[in-house]
Structures are given as structure tokens and as C-alpha cells.
Amino acid sequence: MIRFGRTLLSFKRFSFIGGVLSLATMLVVGGCGAARTGRTVVPITMDPATLTAPADSRALTTHDAAVRGIAGMLVKDLGLPVPGQVTVYVYSNRRVFEQGLIEDANVSPVRAGELADFAIGIGRRRQLLFNDEAYETRGREWLRLVAHELAHVSQIELAAGEGRAEQWMAEGMAEWVAFTVLERLGLDTLPQRRTLARAGIRSHAALVAARLDLETLGTPRGFTVRHLREGSLPTYQLAFLMSDYLIARDGLPKMVEYFRLFGSRQNRFENFRRAFGQTLGEFEKEILAHLKTVTR
């Protein structure tokens, strides 16, 4: 997920598959008096007190069911907050998705064009936007996408705003949450994802150069430049492994506390130090040594 302006999104188009939307309401484009072809909107009301975690994935075949079910897992299993209502926008192809980013997500036309070239999902404050073109079945990777983007929605609720935390941590935590959801649905395992990620970053430019440059990777634009230059998949794998390390070392509640700190202060370096007990530079040295060891 990259953020442009006030937008968060998921990574490479090739990573996801999906299917046909079952529950959707066609809405009228404001001011034009006609339905916008290829755009569907699904308003989903969620009462955190009544959400339940599904036993398996068999019923999670629509956006409504998937968002409710995964939200139940975030609340009941992981202790993460979700808003009382989320609006899901589904677009039939890249062109309509790009237009939706402009009109529904308030992204500038230039940025919308950039995003639509490689993104198929965006999580904003109480909004989820998806390009449905790549979906063929409502299977594992589609559920992973929904979970990843819903994790971003949860992060925004914690921080009381968008794009405030370290970008690599926002993406890495969203991946960790998505993989945990798949594991609890019996579709994947975290150890398997760690193994794949470690193999994927073995020749990553940052590891080869022995310099992760987390100060740059923590900004929306810096993360964008890095994943376009160094490869989307390995950059997200790197973010996942760093967040996974922090969660294993300090626990998920510490990461939740980190995001909550942005509700009262916007200093990303001070919030990292307060939450994790070390500076970002100190963590960079620690995680670089760890990654070198586990990728040998």
C-alpha cells in the first residue's frame, strides 16, 4: 500500500485474483443524472459489539460478507478497532477505477493515473476501493487483499487520520494482519509467508548495500520511489518482515499503541521512540543485523 495525498493502497496488480461482485448497489454520479457504468457501491454497517469471527472462508464470497467477517477477526481475535460503517467501491476495470480514485477518493488526476497503473485496492478512512478487473474467483488472494486494506482502515481509526505513521510499518503491519487472517481461516500460514519473504529479499538492494534507509522508506513518497525502483514484491516483503519482527519482539499491542500516539502528536520519530523504546536509527541497525542472519 502506498499513500498519495490522503490515500492508502495495496501493491502490485499481479499479486491478486478474485471474482464477480454478488452484492452491489449502482449509484448515480452526483450532478450528471445517470448511473456511472462499471461502478458499484456497497455501504456496510458494522457494530463492533456484534461482529463475529467466521470459522472458515466458505461464506466469505461477497464484499459485504468478507468485510464483516474479516472485521470480526480484527476485533475479536486481534483487538483492532474498526469503524461502525465502511463504504466499499468496486470498479469494473482500470479506467473506471482511475476515475473512481478522482471522484470518490479525491485523488488528483495525475496521482490517480499513477495509482491505477499498479494498484487494485485502496483503504482510506472508512472507505475501501477495489479494481475488480483482475478477480476471477473469491479465493485466498482476494481475501488477503480485503484483509490488507481493512487493516489500513483500522490503522486510520487508531491514528485518527491518514498517512501519519511510518509507511513501511503501515504496509508491513497490514501484510501481517492479512497473513494472520488467512492462517486463521486455514488458507495459509505465517511461517510459510516468512520463508517466502526471506527468500524474496535475499538479494534486495537495501540488504546488499547494508543500508535500509528507514527514514526515507517511512514517507509515502519515499516508499513509492523505493518499490518502483527496487521491486514492489520484495519491498512489501521487507516491510512485512520488519513489522513481523517488531510484533514478535514487543507484541501487537505495542504496535497498536504506536498508531494511537498519532492521535495526539504528529512526530513520527518521537512516537516510534515512545512506543518501542529506541530510535528509528537504532532499530534500523538491529533489524538489518537480524535480516542478514535470517536470509543467509
Cα separation of the termini: 28 Å
Count of structural domains: 1
Total E-strand runs:
6
Shape, per Cα inertia axes = globular
The average pLDDT is 86
* Residue windows where pLDDT falls under 50 for at least 5 positions: 1-35
CATH class: Mainly Alpha
Describe this structure in words.
The structure is a single chain. The protein is α+β, with helices and mostly antiparallel strands and 296 residues long. It has a single domain (3-294), classed as Neutral Protease, domain 2. It is built from 13 helices and six strands. The chain has a four-stranded mixed sheet with strand order 3-4-6-5. Strands 1-2 form a two-stranded antiparallel sheet. β5 and β6 (127-131) form a beta hairpin. α9 (220-230) crosses α10. It is globular. Mean pLDDT is 86; it is low at 1-35.
SSE topology sketch:
Elements: E1 3-4, E2 7-8, E3 39-45, H1 63-76, E4 85-91, H2 94-103, H3 109-118, E5 121-124, E6 127-131, H4 140-159, H5 167-184, H6 190-200, H7 205-209, H8 214-217, H9 220-230, H10 232-250, H11 252-261, H12 268-276, H13 280-294
Parallel strand pairs: 4-6
Antiparallel strand pairs: 1-2, 3-4, 5-6
Helix pairs in contact: 1-4, 2-3, 4-5, 4-11, 5-10, 6-10, 9-10, 10-11, 11-12
